[in-house]
Amino acid sequence: MSARPDRVFGREDYRDDTVLDCDVVVVGSGAGGGVIAAELAEAGLEVIVLEEGGYHPTSEFTPEASAMIRMMYRDGGAATTLGTPPVLFSEGRTVGGSTVINGGMSWRTPEKILERWRTDDAVDRITAPEMERYFARVERFISAGRQDPETKSQDNEILIRGADKKGWGWIHNIRNQAHCAGTNNCAFGCPTAAKRSVLVSYLPRALAFGARVYSDLRVDKLIRRGGQVVGVRGRVVREDNSLGARVEVRAPLTVVACGAMQTPALLMRSGIRSRSRRIGTDLSLHPNTKVQAIFDENVEGWKGVHQAYQVRQFQDEGFLFAAVNVPPGILAMTVPHFGRELMEMMRSYHRIVNAGLLLEDTTTGRIRTIGGRPFAFYELSDHDAERAVKATALLCELLFAAGAKKIASPFEGVPDLSSPDDVRKLTEHRIPKSAMELFTVHIMGTARMGGDPTRHVCDSYGKVYGTGGLYVSDASLFPSPIGVNPMETIMALSTRNAERILDTQSVWRAAA
Ligand SMILES: Cc1cc2nc3c(=O)[nH]c(=O)nc-3n(C[C@H](O)[C@H](O)[C@H](O)COP(=O)(O)OP(=O)(O)OC[C@H]3O[C@@H](n4cnc5c(N)ncnc54)[C@H](O)[C@@H]3O)c2cc1C
Ligand code: SF4
Known about the structure:
Blueprint: E1 8-9, E2 18-21, E3 24-27, H1 31-42, E4 47-50, H2 65-72, E5 79-80, E6 87-89, H3 111-121, H4 128-141, E7 144-146, H5 154-166, E8 170-172, E9 174-176, H6 202-208, E10 212-214, E11 217-225, E12 228-237, E13 243-250, E14 253-256, H7 259-269, E15 288-294, E16 309-311, E17 319-323, H8 328-334, H9 339-347, E18 352-359, E19 366-370, E20 373-377, H10 382-401, E21 406-408, H11 424-428, E22 438-440, E23 470-472, H12 487-503, H13 505-511
Parallel strand pairs: 1-10, 2-13, 3-4, 3-14, 4-10, 6-22, 14-23
Antiparallel strand pairs: 5-6, 7-9, 8-16, 11-12, 12-13, 15-18, 15-21, 17-18, 19-20
Helix pairs in contact: 1-6, 1-12, 4-12, 5-10
Residues 104, 177, 180-186, 190, 192, 194-195, 305 line the site of iron/sulfur cluster.
């Protein structure tokens, strides 16, 4: 076990039941929780952050993917939605949340999305000029910028070679990193701390301003007094995941930032009601799929950061392409082959470009709880299924243009493609949804914000309608999917929510 900084506590520190007091208790320490905690602590409030996962500093990060996944992903990183097709998804469960294990893509919310939120959801003061200072502040704290050129891997260069041949637009990715070394371990914890996750950016800032972080602590319920939330109750998570001593934190203000799966579950477990009846609904996922393209040339995609570029030609149609090298064990688990064919494919690992696409979904699912645990129900619409096939076909065209010799499709029953002519195989017959393999790392929208308490769970700044002393500040707030990576949007919204909490201090303190 590594030494923890002052004011970061772990399971060894709470032997007996404990009661704590503060101004604001923040549940969850990821993109939403970490940012709001730092902002409020910097303004002088006494802040306590509660996090179910453990505290794992940079020195604990190794390239052993399966060990890191067990250490920092919820449910071993392999949860799935219920529906057709099932969508595999991952959430972080560690101090710093999913930012510790994410890819680091840092994008502002597209203007057309902000405009949609303003017009369709009556979100207050959300235009691009009004959001500018929040994005700029976040980008400064997480060092959002372009990669140093020498850290870009060959699979990425091949991707844009294909885009150039097709005449399609692409962009340099903006990532939250300072002189990233290109080790491509981002999903298992950055071993150099170049990736400025919440663990190494906002949390140290929160601690420096006096916040306390209690890790290994799972919040079960919000404490309610009438229409007011006055704190939370939780249990210590022991090494074997069983629950130990009880901890209660009393505060006039509670911020729930557990991510878009866990936040609605906590609200439901606590009996919070919304006039909108939309706690847990409006789940969107940005379904992803991927193909493996084999080239004659050496690709060695592990030598450099993944997703150095994004192909944005089809952003208006709601999809993006990127190259994402994954370790051989993970690739072998996900390619649509077995036996000799799989062995042949894995022998070519050094010549494979694993390329993915992100789809801005037009349908929504919902979270329900069973025994207090959240389950995601999501049915891909026919329209989105057709778009996924179309986008995959375009991605294959790009890879053949870049020189691919063979491509494994993500659709069961579709044989490997050997030439651009074969791409037609993808679109000739209707591919059943049950034959699609989808996954996601973007879960959004289950406690949506907006200007109408009959349609939205939270107001434009995350305050839960109809309940005093309670805010939400994470990906749950999104009124719709955003079509790009969500971390920076969550961070900017949290910065803005913190400002609102500070401006309304006299109100929420008086109500408690
Ligand atoms: C593998 C992966 C790669 C990704 N890549 C990118 C990327 O490149 N760019 C990008 O923009 N986005 C990326 N994302 C998504 C992005 O990281 C998330 O959207 C973002 O971190 C979500 O922020 P959040 O605050 O909603 O939740 P999180 O960051 O997930 O934080 C929630 C925290 O709350 C804790 N928690 C939950 N329930 C409780 C409870 N009851 N009690 C106490 N604590 C609790 C969790 O353990 C977790 O640590 C990726 C995600 C993953 C998993
Ligand atoms: S590629 Fe860069 S950001 Fe990712 S783990 Fe390596 S050094 Fe860290």
